[in-house]
Amino acid sequence: MRLPPYHCELNPIELVWAQVKGDVARNNTSFKLSDVKILLENSLERVTADKWQRCIHHVHKEEEKMWELDNLIDVAVEPLVINLGDEDSSDSEDEF
User: Fold this and answer.
1) GO: which molecular function terms (predicted)?
2) Whole-model pTM?
């Protein structure tokens, strides 16, 4: 599946990775690389199929919200008409 660039909220792995990083950061008390490696491995082990499903569900909800917003923008913008005026008219210079 192709994901749009600059939209990490539409990629479930970004949500999982954020949870893992947050877990490591909360539990990191020694700031030693060897301890961080252990914390990382422990946190990755806690990434369950249920967590993945919740992240995927969250991404689907975010995508639906984006589609709804896109449709609302289309409805709001469609009736707008921009009139640039007549290019040959010298009256447009007087308006400034």
Assistant:
1) nucleic acid binding
2) 0.70
